[in-house]
Amino acid sequence: MIDETTPTTPQIDTQDSLRDRTKDALADAREAVTEAVNSAIETAKKHPAATAAVAAGAAAAVAGAAYGISKLREKEEAK
Description:
The protein is mainly α.
């Protein structure tokens, strides 16, 4: 009878396989992110006015969200 706490060879192989697949997935993700960042940088250099407009829009959205949250908190505190 095999002791259930003792790892068997198939479990070790499965762990190694999972580890290898995880490393491969991380390498693929790193490569994809690097390509996306490089592409974004190239596009920003080619279209600086559009980049500035997008950045301004994102800043306005964040500011609007922060303002909205502050107003919601004021309402909650008033109750």
